[in-house]
Protein: Integrase
Amino acid sequence: MPTAKINKRSVDAFSADGQPQAVLWDSEIRGFGVRALPSGLKTFIVQYRNAEGIKRRINIGRYGVITVERARDLAKIKLGEVAAGEDPAVTVHEARKGMTVSQMCDWYLTEARAGNILGRKNRPIKESSLKMDESRINTHIKPLLGKRHAKHLTIAEVEQMQSDVRDGKTAKARGGGRGGKAAGGPGVAARCLGTLQAILGHAKHKGLLTEHPTRGAKKLATKKKTRRLSSTEITALGKAMAYAERNGENPTALAVVRLLALTGFRREEGQAMKRAWVHAEGGFVAFPDTKTDAQVRAIGPEALRVVLVQAEIAGNPHVFPSLTGTGPYQASSACFIRVCRLAGIEGATLHTLRHTFASIAGELGFTELTIRAMLGHASQNVTQDYIHIDEALKLAVRRTSDEIARLLDEGAAGLRRVNLAA
Structure:
């Protein structure tokens, strides 16, 4: 087994090198090491023999989630427990056998943020996903089932939790200055059940549960959102946006709305876009991370105009910067609600603009496969040569974007004509 002083340089240089797994042991702390997998994932570990001479190996945390220095400190603590006659692996395992649902949820969030629980494609679960999980846990799961012992849960109990969330029994005012209530409903209820089932499944996989106690619980069926704007509504939206701009609406928020309409990007993809990702000369945006991993997405000239006219704020890398701090602007949803109210458009959200982009592309004659690629559903990996992005796809994006821009501008022109006539 290779040994070296474990530091950032040695860990970065270490790899599985074609083996199912490889371990680099620290030359200073006996039993401290880092394990590498062919996927590139690296995990800090501690290996020791307990008082009975049985070899144990426990994970400390995923490299990149915790630092080498933090891993060294944790390793010293665990090995100190061994020297005192304890067995950290057994202590942890036994303590977790009697976990309540609340404790198991906390365990899951801690382990997932340390990179010790893998999600899609055997990669650590994204922080954005964990934030949504944490919100469901704190708002709905813990209040309804937190005190129950996880191993004694029944299918009837978790399905009742789902019904209670659907019926609004856990509704409460949102914190952090956000308006409205977290009111539940069938969609939230089904996602809460899915989150809890996933937590229990991970607990079984990690040996905390002998069996998944609620396997087979039925999730509520939810209607897929298909709302999209008609051509008439797009024109009305353009008119309302022009009116809102003249009457003091935030120009950054309006720019985000227009960009989303012209690209079909997801809200956070557009709202949190960074300038470094935008390649105007090539007509694409290179997203380092999206809902479906890193992607290169074509962007039309009309949308690029929106991006390029945005004012820069020193120290803020975002196309649509917040006026405070270094983060992106975050209030475009509220703006969209206001302009929809002005336009007389009901039942629409910013995600409706994504469906609308797809609908217009379909009306222009583009195939479902092409539309999926335009929206980033197809494989558009950043390892592709940017120069060779499908020109047909660029053309499809440009024509769709141009048509939506035409409808929006037609509405704005209509408002100008009204003002001139007055």
Summary: The first strand starts at residue 3 and ends at 4. DSSP finds 15 helices and ten strands in the chain. The chain has three domains: 3-89, 101-205, 231-421.
